[in-house]
Every structure is written in structure tokens, then in C-alpha cells.
Design goal:
globular, 7 strands, binds nicotinamide-adenine-dinucleotide, alpha/beta
Length: 279
């Protein structure tokens, strides 16, 4: 196994996002949780969105508050328009504005094509794609209202869509999920094109296999991990912090000229490693 096993040490500059207000959806678990904490380490105040498990959301809030920045847990189902509108209104009221949206909430409802119910198809599209659309739309209204505040950031707002390697790699048995992430790619690029003239940066992060509850079956036994590693040239399963660090950098002015791009954070999964010896 790779000598870099486990997430690399914390290297987030402490004041990189000082004074910025971030909303992370689905922030009480996995990648969202690590991202919320990473943004806070970089100095941002953070709204921790959750749809279930308030206790887990409060734990993230408490951890963030211990870093000396502000945090609050807001309950909202990102697939419900009224709840997203209310969440954004509340954030603007209580935090003053929003500078960074991380549209992270997502789920899987796996089934082969002929076993997949319309509910399974629709649920995944509603949360993974429509949820990101609704959050991006509401955040953009506030970015536009506020405009650029040069002491805070060079851009008028940052939207980071949590996509997946499955915006590129087909995934048998997961057509709803792959279609939702393929949709995220084109939504992200279209919004980036539409909003860049206003100084709003839209980008995506596409994780490979990251150790979180969403894909527990893929890593929880040594046999499953071994099989999974066949797909990862860098030879380790990713950790939520691997994604969090990239989101922090992408949200910061260090990456001010990065617009409409997907950053694959996947240990080389999208290099199609089967072709290293075959093809
Ligand atoms: P996770 O299950 O730990 O986290 C998903 C979060 O989304 C949870 O907090 C869940 O409650 C929340 N959520 C689900 N439906 C919601 C809704 N309607 N409204 C608000 N929140 C909702 O899984 P994760 O791996 O941390 O996934 C986070 C994102 O990363 C997802 O978009 C997922 O598709 C993406 N992703 C994960 C991996 C991976 O290997 N873990 C790989 C590629 C992409």
C-alpha cells in the first residue's frame, strides 16, 4: 500500500478565508462535515446545513465554534424550494451575507435499471441535481445584491458543486446517481459561463472513492478495500479531509482565476488504471 496512507497533515493557512461566510449543505457527515471544519480552520464563518441528525450537526457547530469563528446549524431539505429559500434568507439575516456555497448534499439509491423505481430515480435527481440548482440560484441572488467587497474576496461569490468521478465514468447499477452527476457537470459549466461576467466563480470538485458513510460497503472490509484499490493508481482510499483542503483552496483567492473547472480529487481514478496493463 502507498506510504501516503491516511490523510496528509493539516496545511490550511489560518486566515485564508477570514471574514467570509460559507454555507455547506449536508455538512453533518462525511465530506460536508470535513469541508465545514476546513473552511472554519481557514477563518470562515460557517452555516452547517443538515436534513436529519441534528446532534451530528450540532457537534460540527461546536467543533467550529472552538476554532474561534461563528457557526450555526440550519435544517433544510435542499430538494425543497421553500426550505432552501428560507435557509438562505436566514443566513443573510443572521450572518449578513454569503460568500461561499458548497453544494455538497447528496445521496445514492442504487438498483439495476429494471429494478429501479421511479421514486429511486427521482429522489437522487431531486437531491443531487435540483438541490444544487436551488442552492446556487438563491446564493447568486445574494452575491448579486452584495457585489464584490475587495477586503473580503476578489470575487462576488464562489459556488462549489460537489460532483463525482461519475460525472465522467459510467456506473452500472447506479444510473440515477451517474445521471445526476453528469447533470451537475453541465449545470456547473453553464452557470460558470452565465455568472463569470458578474465576478461569480462556479467550479466543481469531483471526488473519487472517499471513506464516508455513503460508500461504506466499498471500504469496510479488507477484501472490499483491496478490490477498490484496483481502481485507484495512488493506492489509498481518500479521506474527507482530502476533499476539504481542495474546497478551501478553490474557494479562496489563491484560485481566483479558476472558473468553470472540475478538480478531480481521486488518486488517479479517472486515469482508467485498467489500461495501465490492458487495452
Ligand atoms: P454522506 O452520506 O456522509 O453525506 C451526505 C450528506 O448529504 C449527509 O449529511 C446527508 O444527510 C446529506 N443529505 C442527503 N440528502 C439531503 C437533503 N435532501 N438535504 C440536505 N442534506 C441532505 O456522504 P459523502 O460521501 O460525504 O457525500 C457528500 C457528497 O460527495 C455527495 O454529493 C456525494 O455524491 C459526493 N461524493 C462522495 C464520494 C465518496 O466516495 N464518498 C465520491 C464522489 C462524490
Amino acid at each position: 500500500m502507498n506510504s501516503t496512507e491516511g490523510a496528509p497533515p493539516e496545511v490550511i493557512p489560518a486566515r485564508l478565508l477570514h471574514g467570509q461566510k460559507a454555507l455547506v449543505t449536508g455538512a453533518n457527515s462525511g465530506i460536508g462535515r470535513a469541508t465545514a471544519i476546513g473552511l472554519a480552520r481557514a477563518g470562515a464563518d460557517v452555516v452547517v446545513n443538515y436534513v436529519a441528525d441534528r446532534t451530528a450537526a450540532q457537534e460540527v457547530v461546536d467543533e467550529i465554534a472552538s476554532l474561534g469563528v461563528r457557526a450555526a446549524a440550519y435544517e433544510a431539505d435542499v430538494s425543497q424550494e421553500d426550505q432552501v429559500v428560507a435557509m438562505m434568507d436566514r443566513m443573510v439575516q443572521e450572518f449578513g451575507t454569503i460568500d461561499i456555497l458548497v453544494a455538497n448534499a447528496g445521496l445514492q439509491r442504487d438498483a439495476g435499471l429494471t429494478e429501479m423505481t421511479l421514486d429511486q430515480w427521482q429522489k437522487v435527481l431531486d437531491v443531487n441535481l435540483t438541490g444544487q440548482f436551488l442552492c446556487a440560484r438563491e446564493a447568486t441572488k445574494e452575491f448579486r445584491r452584495r457585489g464584490v467587497v475587495p477586503e473580503v474576496s476578489r470575487s462576488a461569490g464562489k459556488i462549489i458543486c460537489m460532483s463525482s468521478v461519475h460525472q465522467l465514468i459510467p456506473w452500472a447499477g447506479h444510473v440515477n446517481y451517474a445521471a445526476s452527476k453528469g447533470g451537475v457537470l453541465m449545470m456547473m459549466q453553464t452557470l460558470a459561463q452565465e455568472l463569470a461576467p458578474e465576478g461569480i466563480r462556479v467550479n466543481a470538485v469531483a471526488p473519487g472513492a472517499i471513506r464516508t458513510p455513503i460508500n461504506r460497503a466499498a471500504w469496510e472490509t479488507p477484501e472490499a478495500t483491496e478490490e477498490l484499490l484496483q481502481l485507484i493508481p495512488y493506492d489509498r482510499v481518500g479521506e474527507p479531509e482530502d476533499i476539504a483542503r481542495v474546497v478551501v483552496a478553490l474557494a479562496s483567492d489563491l484560485m481566483d482565476y479558476v472558473v468553470g473547472t472540475t478538480l478531480y480529487v481521486d488518486g488517479g481514478m479517472t486515469l482508467f488504471p485498467g489500461f495501465a496493463t490492458g487495452g
